[in-house]
Design a protein that fits this description.
Blueprint (H helix, E strand, L loop, with lengths): L2 E5 L2 E4 L4 E8 L8 E6 L6 E6 L6 E3 L7 E6 L4 E6 L8 E8 L12 E4 L3 E6 L1
Parallel strand pairs: 2-11
Antiparallel strand pairs: 1-3, 3-8, 4-5, 4-9, 5-6, 7-8, 9-10, 9-11
C-alpha cells in the first residue's frame, strides 16, 4: 500500500507562491508515477501535473504551464508542486496521487491508485 499526505497549503495573497508537498509511505512509491489534481468548490476535480517514477519526465495541463512545477525526491519519498503567481482561481483542495506503476504520465483520475486527503489552498485578492 501507498499512503500519501499533502501539506503546504494555506491562505496566501494573490501573486504569492506556495510549495506543496506530498509525503509518501510505502516501499512501492518509487515505482509509481505521481500526479497532482485540484478541486475547487462546486467544480470537478481537474488535472494539474504529473511526474514519472524517476522524476525525469513531467506533464502539465496546458493551462497550468508556466506557473506550476512538479518535482520529486525519491530518497525522501516526497513529491512537490511549486506554484508561482497565485491567483484567486487557484483556490482549491490540492491532491496528490500515485498511479498503478506505469511508465507513462497519467492525466485521468481513474488511472491513479492511491490518493491523499488533500491540502487546502486559498488565494485572496
Amino acid at each position: 500500500q501507498v499512503q500519501l499526505v499533502e501539506s503546504g497549503g494555506g491562505l496566501v495573497q494573490a501573486g504569492g507562491s506556495l510549495r506543496l508537498s506530498c509525503a509518501a509511505d510505502g516501499r512501492t512509491f518509487t515505482s509509481r508515477g505521481v500526479g497532482w489534481f485540484r478541486q475547487a468548490p462546486g467544480k470537478e476535480r481537474e488535472f494539474v501535473a504529473a511526474i514519472s517514477r524517476r522524476g525525469d519526465r513531467t506533464y502539465y495541463e496546458d493551462s497550468m504551464k508556466g506557473r506550476f512545477t512538479i518535482s520529486r525526491d525519491n530518497a525522501k519519498k516526497t513529491v512537490y508542486l511549486q506554484i508561482e503567481s497565485l491567483k484567486p482561481e487557484d483556490t482549491a483542495v490540492y491532491y496528490c496521487e500515485a498511479d498503478y506503476g506505469t511508465l507513462g504520465l497519467q492525466r485521468n483520475k481513474n488511472d491513479y491508485a492511491y490518493w491523499g486527503r488533500g491540502t487546502q489552498v486559498t488565494v485572496s485578492s
